[in-house]
Amino acid sequence: MAPQRRAAPLWSGAVAYLELSLSLPSAKRSRGQQESRWRWLRALFLLASAAIGALLIWRYLGAEDGVTEVLAHRRENLQDKFIEIPCSEDYDSHKRFEGCTPRKCGRGVTDAVITREEAERIRRIAERGLSLGGSDGGASILDLHSGALSLGKHFVNLYRYFGDKIQDIFTEEDFALYRDVRQRIQQRIAQAFGINSSSMYLTKPTFFSRINSTEAKTTHDEYWHPHVDKVTYGSFDYTSLLYLSDYSEDFGGGRFVFMDAGSNKTIEPQAGRVSFFTSGSENLHRVEKVHWGTRYAITISFTCNPDHGIGDPVLT
Ligand SMILES: O=C(O)CCC(=O)C(=O)O
Ligand SMILES: [Fe+2]
């Protein structure tokens, strides 16, 4: 049998150094010893600095704010994950709608409601719409209901700005797909919280988001702040997010984080993944800064108050 070659172990250099130093005359040997020791110390120092640097970068990119638990890993195929948590008192200061206003609160994630192919089709709608505008900073939105589209440091009304040309950009099928996806998410939320889906109403804002690593130019670009949707948006009772691109494949950073006392919980976006939760302060959350690439998502929100309900967007 041919002798097997073994890789030299890491410490073989130190052994060679020792053998060499023993075979030299003493004066030369001590100078040689000193130089070698310095060389070793320098190498050790460089190695330690590189390790500390790598550790700091890893902590900064992967574990901002001491994130401890991943609720939904990318590549995982979650059928239905639901975690019940006690409701905050936020709902008490609003008019209650029995059979809809949350009595059971919590958060869920599912990869089984929207397919990757459907998410990709919706992403193309978002790309088409957002290519007409875009914020100067890193966060752009497009609201198909109101027509609000980020442009530079402001917003324009897509429908007013582009008039009839809008028919060349979006099709009836795009809107039908949006409607279908919205309905299925609504039903999934109703089922998870034990309410009737017909007692929930779509509410505004409901919008596509496109986030990249460009530096923020206005406060509209600062998507990463911790917030409570019910406080930020008022009418929300149930929030859902449909992700349209993949964490660590299409973009880095940009994970969704529930900020619980003591331990944060993250959701890693994946095309077709739906995350949903009650909108009160039991679900304080934030989005990590996107470090590279482009992240697409859509926020679809529901209210229990029919006065705050809106219809599905229509191609005008
Ligand atoms: O895009 C996300 O993951 C979250 C967005 C969000 O928090 C919001 O729209 O209120
Ligand atoms: Fe939010």
TrEMBL record:
It comes from the Eukaryota. The keyword Oxidoreductase applies. The gene is LOC101879231. Its cofactor is L-ascorbate. GO terms for cellular component: membrane. InterPro entries: OGFOD3, Oxoglu/Fe-dep_dioxygenase_dom, Pro_4_hyd_alph, Pro_4_hyd_alph_FE2OG_OXY. Gene3D superfamilies: q2cbj1_9rhob like domain (2.60.120.620). This is Uncharacterized protein. Keywords: Dioxygenase, Iron, Metal-binding, Oxidoreductase. It comes from Melopsittacus undulatus. Transmembrane segments: none annotated. Signal peptide: none annotated. GO terms for molecular function: dioxygenase activity; iron ion binding; L-ascorbic acid binding; oxidoreductase activity, acting on paired donors, with incorporation or reduction of molecular oxygen.
